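Please go through the sequence and fold tokens given here and tell me how the chain folds. Record follows.
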Amino acid sequence: MKPTSRRKFLEKAGLATLVSVSPLEAEPEKTKELFVHHVYFYLKNPNDAKDEAALMEGLHKLAKVPTIQYVHIGKPAATSRSVIVKDYSISWLCFFKNIIEEEIYQTHPIHLDFIKEYSHLWEKVVVYDSIGPKKVS
């Protein structure tokens, strides 16, 4: 049997047209659920006001990624219950229409520049992503 390239296989199978379809059309289930992206930054120097200010500056730049629907930048609240975690420096919470919009954000030049310019400030990041209905009744 003669070896076939992936492209030739797709063309022969009649699937090549799917490659040209937008992700929204090809995977409609990915457009139905709100996507929430929550990042906790742990600064290398948590008591350094300059580092904190620099990261805040970077996050404000990052908030300009067009697929972000809503963003919240915060610091640990002055609450004290046993279930509350307050060991992080800064929290970044943003909402996207769907997972596709979040995937665009992940590869957007503003996001890539943010990582390149500001990652030296943190020792660790923890990310919680979740999906759910766009509207809860």
